[in-house]
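Input chain follows. Return structure tokens only.
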Amino acid sequence: MILSTTPSIEGHAIREYKGVVTGETIIGANVVKDFFASIRDVVGGRAGSYEKVLIEAKDTSLHEMTMRAEALGANAIVGIDIDYETIGQSGSMLMVATSGTAVVI
């Protein structure tokens, strides 16, 4: 599966559009609290443990979206957008949502 944030893939014609696909991941309140509790983990102005969980959430969301595209018979996703939002009471949860267009190239 080819994943791209661009609307097309250089050197490949889009033969068929399968539709919009999405992936969502929500990290619960305890994880978010743990992130902030581990801020002491900061090295060079970066919170390593926080970044690792954000990357994992993004990867999970992309994987979910990829599985949905494969179920439609697509072999690529173009125009991918990744959004990070806090949700829930007092922003106690973090959501990573991905969306794109499933295509056959």
